[in-house]
Amino acid sequence: MKILLKLANLSLLILFPVAWFAPLMKSGLWPIQSLREYSIMDALQGVWKNDVYLALLMTFFAVFAPYIKIISTALIQFNLMSPRLMGPMQFIGKLAMADIYAIAIFIVIYTGIDVAGISGQVETSWGLYLFTGNVIASILISHFTRKSLDG
Questions:
Q1: In degrees rounded to 5, what are phi and psi of residue 80?
Q2: H or E segment at 128?
Q3: DSSP structure class, residue 35
Q4: What is the pLDDT of residues 111-134, one digit of tens each?
């Protein structure tokens, strides 16, 4: 079981970057415009141009928080860091859930778009499910790692 947890955790080191560049959603004004795909990195690039402070927060939540948690969990799993730090690492990992909520709100707002009688269209894409799955997997991995350390 411990080996499976280690492999699952280390696989997130690859899966998170894939999720950052994967299309989260497609949107556009139908029938005038074809749907454009947006990823987490597209959103970060757009925000960096307009609001540096929001971009810093989004970058921390989407990129750094998950990676800090994965690396910390791996260090704990390989006995290179104290298991007492597992609690704070779980909290940091949960911060990545903030991105999922922000994306959900973004989709809800845009599904009601109507410009000059032309309806906007937003569709979720596979990257949203991958990112959400990564965050949930990370939470579960740290939960079961903590349980395996406790007893």
A1: -105, -5
A2: helix 126-150
A3: P
A4: 555 555 555 677 788 988 898 888
Q: Which residue spans within the chain are E strands per DSSP?
A: 25-29, 36-38, 114-115, 118-124
Give the number of C-alpha atoms closer than 13 A to the C-alpha of residue 132, restricted to the C-beta side.
Answer: 13
Residue 20: left if φ>0, alpha if ψ -120 to 50, beta else—which one? Answer: alpha
Residues 15-24 pLDDT 10s: 999 999 999 8
CATH topology of domain 2-150: Butyryl-CoA Dehydrogenase, subunit A; domain 3 (1.20.140)
Write down the residue that tokens 């948690």 correspond to: 69
Domain residue ranges in the chain: 2-150
Q: Tokens in use for 110?
A: 């845009």
Of 150, 148, 142, the closest CA to residue 66 belongs to: 142
- Tokens encoding 49: 């141009």
Q: CA angle, 147 as apex, 141 and 148 as ends, to 5°?
A: 90
Residue 12's CB: how many other CB atoms inside 10 A? 24
